[in-house]
Design goal:
The complex is a heterodimer of chains A (527) and B (154). Chain A is an alpha/beta fold and 527 residues long. Chain A contains 22 helices and 18 strands. The chains are: A alpha/beta (527), B alpha+beta (154). Chain A: FAD binds at residues 83, 104, 112, 148, 433, 440-442.
Chain lengths: 527, 154
């Protein structure tokens, strides 16, 4: 029976043509299945009956068709960022019957694409278009405003779905673990990014931008993002989807100088060349690069893989070569500056006289043991202090355990898994940062999510996921939520919020004005 | 006979008996065959996908317009903000491609499985010399497994 079904099934399309094409295909495939079943009745009599159209035969075939529909896998994805959406997309594309429901804690979808990608990088957010297409598929549903682990447990999801995929990312950050870390003026870069990107939990951050110098600990792309947002000309920022509140605060900022401080050297920087180039060319700013840090590096990287080579060569060029006329005059006229400090490891945030406010940072001078990616920073005993009133620690995001019953490795900050299958828990999978750790760009997460989806598909095909075990999917979850007074936000509701944000943005010459209060969002869709 | 009929004055089957019309039809026919370029894509699972584009179309345009089944291709929609349209070219084609810009190389550098003849598909526009070329879609992950597909006729 299964062979018959797959032989005559039409290809599904998660398409822009919307429901119609899919419906037509489903109709065609149903007719084929019906005919196949009638034909497979075997006897000559059966064939004659089919040929002349026995109504009874057709009815039996039809009821068997209905039971086929019940064998559609019910899959649930927790998290609506790139990991969640790419996992869903791959499942829907490569399984013609699977139903995928995507759950999200916030009312609004898209995770770090909305709340992490910098406001001045709108092209990176184009993936929202393909995610929207996926959400519009008739075998996919989005349910926002539902906190897994609180409104419904993972166990309850496992009862309702054949497979549950955890794609909830990394909502926390690594801590420095040094004295003074909790002084006013010290924030995680994660919270700062959340603040300017309208993440509801960070909307009241009120970062102190009243001093001249800011120190960012870390030398990755997030560190460059926050430096760039702190120093960008206001007319550029004002045309992005940065929140109104943070733009107003940045407009009053006194910050003129941002240092990006790393424990190791130039050969170990984690940021990538496009972002570095952007920083070097940032209008109104000049780079502060100590030639001593870069002398001779050009030779060291001669035989290193191209990405690291070009990145290092760009830093070397900017530090050692005399700038062209245009660049020289731009740097001379610059009112703001940014720089890289190497081989400095934070020891203590120093308090101001009142004991509450940060006034500087004390750092250990390090030397490198080993080379390349695996070089280690070892303290030399020397110490240095840097005066600053704003410290942003950009040393990595961190995942949190969702539920005490789900395996979690607190040291690595990931869910222990093999190819996306959660260890020791059949039917449970993971994708994205919670699976691999919080590094990489969208393409890394995309490939990783496709890989997890492959594991789910393998398990569906091999029977590890038992489809004869009927699952109700959202139907049973809905009644659980109802009994707990939780109202899901649909994708169509999100589109109402989206339209409102775009309309408000238009008035201000921005792509959108993000709504930062979840209550306001819920009121808009009258929940 | 059909071919000969097509070259007769007055055009092929049916309509074109009107004097000035022949030139218009065949000139258009000549132009449209001149600006078509056929490209073969070897997909990650080894399948060969053949599609036709027009001179000037980017390879991303071809993949999107012809709805080619390549997972995750063109995430940033041709804005040099990702490397998902990474393609591997034949040597003799690669040599003749327009020089790569810093901006393209910056993103290409992040692509998985980079080769000596890699480029980003959104930056390569079709030219006549590319007709019938074969491009390969690179692997996306280190331990590529047998791909499972329960959507097609098997």
């Amino acid at each position: 029976a299964d062979a018959g079904r797959s032989r005559f099934a039409a290809r599904p399309r998660v398409s822009r043509a919307g429901g119609v094409a899919v419906e037509a295909e489903r109709l065609v495939s149903s007719v084929w299945v019906l005919l196949a079943r009638s034909r497979s009745m075997g006897s000559r009599c059966g064939r004659v009956c089919w040929k002349w159209g026995s109504p009874l035969r057709r009815l039996t075939g039809f009821s068997r068709l209905l039971s086929t529909a019940v064998l559609a896998p019910q899959i649930c994805v927790v998290g609506s960022g790139p990991a969640g959406f790419y996992t869903a997309q791959h499942l829907l594309k490569h399984h013609r019957l699977a139903r995928v429901d995507i759950y999200e804690k916030l009312p609004v979808p898209f995770g770090l694409v909305r709340f992490g990608v910098a406001p001045d990088h709108p092209e990176v957010k184009n993936v929202i278009n393909t995610f929207t297409q996926t959400a519009h598929s008739d075998r996919c549903s989005y349910y926002g405003n539902i906190t897994i682990g609180k409104d419904v447990t993972v166990k309850e999801l496992q009862r309702a779905y054949h497979a549950v995929v955890l794609s909830y990312g990394a909502e926390d950050n690594r801590i420095l673990g040094i004295p003074g870390e909790n002084l006013s003026g010290v924030y995680s870069a994660r919270a700062f990014v959340g603040w300017y990107n309208g993440l509801p939990e960070n909307r009241d951050l009120k970062p102190d931008l009243s001093s001249e110098t800011a120190v960012v600990l870390g030398q990755g792309n997030v560190a460059l993002d926050v430096a760039r947002v702190l120093l960008s000309p206001l007319d550029i920022l004002g045309k992005t989807d940065i929140t109104e509140g943070s733009l107003a605060a940045i407009a009053c900022s006194k910050i003129k100088r941002v240092w990006l401080v790393g424990r190791r050297g130039p050969l170990q920087v984690a940021f990538t060349i496009k972002e570095l180039r952007e920083m070097i060319n940032l209008p109104g700013t000049r780079p502060l690069l100590d030639p001593a840090d870069f002398t001779g590096l050009g030779d060291v990287v001669k035989d290193v893989p191209r990405p690291r080579k070009r990145l290092t060569e760009l830093m070397v060029k900017s530090a050692l070569e005399k700038p062209g006329e245009k660049e020289a005059s731009r740097w001379a006229a610059a009112t703001k500056e940014w720089g890289l400090k190497f081989q400095r490891s934070p020891l203590e945030v120093l308090p101001a006289a009142d004991g509450k406010q940060a006034r500087g940072i004390r750092m250990a001078v390090t030397r490198l043991e080993g080379s390349g990616e695996s070089a280690r920073a070892v303290p030399t005993g020397e110490v240095e202090e840097l005066e600053c009133g704003l410290i942003l620690s950009s040393i990595g995001y961190r995942s949190l355990p969702l539920d005490s019953l789900i395996p979690f490795d607190p040291k690595l900050g990931i869910i222990p898994n093999s190819l996306g299958r959660v260890q020791g828990t059949p039917g449970l999978y993971c994708s994205g940062w919670v699976k691999r750790g919080p590094t990489g760009v969208i393409i890394t997460t995309m490939n990783d999510s496709f890989d997890t989806a492959q594991s789910v598909l393998e398990d569906l095909q091999s029977g590890v996921l038992d489809l004869s075990n009927t699952k109700e999917g959202f139907k049973s979850v809905r009644s659980i939520l109802h009994s707990r007074g939780v109202h899901p936000v649909t994708f169509s509701d999100w589109e109402t919020i989206d339209a409102a944000e775009v309309a408000r943005g238009k008035l201000a010459g921005k792509p959108r004005e993000k709504i930062v209060d979840p209550q306001e969002m819920l009121q808009l869709i009258s929940h | 006979r059909w071919l000969l009929a097509a070259w007769r004055p007055g055009g092929g089957s049916g309509a074109a008996r009107r004097p000035g019309r022949f030139f218009g039809v065949s000139a258009r026919a000549r132009l449209s065959s001149e600006d078509k370029v056929t490209v073969h894509f070897i997909n990650r699972d080894g399948d060969k996908l053949t599609a036709e584009g027009k001179v000037g179309d980017s390879l991303l345009d071809v993949v999107v317009d012809k709805n080619l089944d390549i997972d995750g291709f063109g995430a940033c929609e041709g804005t040099l903000a990702c490397s998902t349209c990474h393609l591997i070219f034949e040597d003799h084609i690669f040599e003749k491609l327009d020089a790569i810009t810093d901006e393209e190389m910056d993103m290409l550098d992040l692509a998985y499985g980079l080769t000596e003849t890699s480029r980003l598909g959104c930056q390569i526009c079709l030219k006549k010399f590319m007709n019938n070329m074969t491009v390969r879609v690179p692997e996306a992950v280190a331990d590529a497994r047998q791909s499972i597909d329960m959507s097609k006729n098997s």
